Amino acid sequence: MLIPRFSLSQTSTHLTIIIRCPYVKFSSSVSNDEQNGVEVDLSSSDEFYFACKPYYLHLYLPGRVIEKDTPNYTYDIDTSSFCFTYEKETKNEHFENLDMITKLLNKEKKIESNAIEEIEKESDNELTEEEEDDDEPLWNQMRQLEIDDQPKETLISSYSYGFNHQYKDIFTNFDSEYSLIFDNQHPDSLPLTSIRSNRLEKEQSDFNCEHYLADKYDLNDEEVFDYKLILDNEFNDQDRDDLKNLKYKQLLIDDPIPIYLGLIDLLYAFVYDQRITQGESCCESPWNIHKLSATLSWFDTFIDLPSVLIACCRRTLIYPLTRSFKLAKRCFDDVIRILSQGKCAILQCLLQMRRIFLDEEHRYLLNTLYLNDYCLWIQTHCQSKWLESLVEAMKHTIEYELDENNLELDFERETFAWKVTLHETSDSDDVSSDDDENC
Fold first, then answer.
1. How many beta carbons lie within 10 A of that of residue 343, not counting itself?
2. Mean pLDDT across the stretch 370-378?
3. What is the pTM of this model?
4. Cβ–Cβ contacts within 10 Å for residue 2, how many?
5. Rounded to whole angstroms, how far apart are CA atoms 107 and 47?
6. For the chain, N or C: smaller number of CB within 10 Å?
């Protein structure tokens, strides 16, 4: 059976479910649903069943609706779509996350982390109360010095990586070419405590001051700086298909803060590529995104906001063709805009990244290690209030703390050496000119 493409919308009093079924044999002149092969049922006020060969759909609704003896629906022959309308039990109630497709297709379960077992959620109110008890993180008060005191380290393998550090020994099953595309070429043997220092050392050795200074003073590509990221208000058909086909699993998350901060790193790499390519991803896009993201290239993890912002800036000034701190700040503006628009906008970006890596040799592993789980996490665990507080913290940190001279790239020493070399070259040219004149 196929899962059809579907969408949900609402008014203050009704919920509408539209299901597109282009391969059904349906006759609008036949009034009997059984003759048309249409089966519809509400097993409870928040579970919807639909079947019409070769399609089957089971939705877990985010709110309760009133069941009627006879289903109220219409069929549009032009679009091959069924439209079901149900009255809400509570008028003026707003149903959350109607566009979180993967979540609608799978029943949420409460996970008890101590016993590592799944228990079915008793009620929606229980989850709501638990979410309200979660305090928003004080992003700007967290610093990298706290990394040694993280209690989660006792639960995480020293050589784990991927989303929520849930993967290890992945690369032992592949040939050496897979690990060569990553800056962290030994992910199964490099301890978590050494990743950050190795990354910083490699970035410093790769830093090219001449390229950086040339772009700083001579870059006049206004199209890159003036580009406006295009975000739709709703998912397109490709997004909906990707979400309904996304594999669902329970995520056991002990510390959500690194996941939110890692999201900044991923979105930054994506919007940089969007600016460089003017929204038209190209063959260089997989490399751009992979290389700019310390999460994807080094499997690095962040626990404080300044460190992830600095990492994004450092890698922007070291690796891509266009290296500009001004461009980096424009990209942060794009990330803030995406986070401000909420889960739908974030998912659109992650799904585009996922498709970029999907057919890319070796880099398709990034979907398994990070992007698939991030797409699922956004729908099931990500909290809007945390995103809002993260946006405010980003604005404050970028304005008052993020400075080009605080990126620890030895700008002064490198600039001085560059000026000396430039001066020596100039003197050498002058001597050559004098010799030519004497001749």
1. 18
2. 97
3. 0.85
4. 12
5. 10
6. C
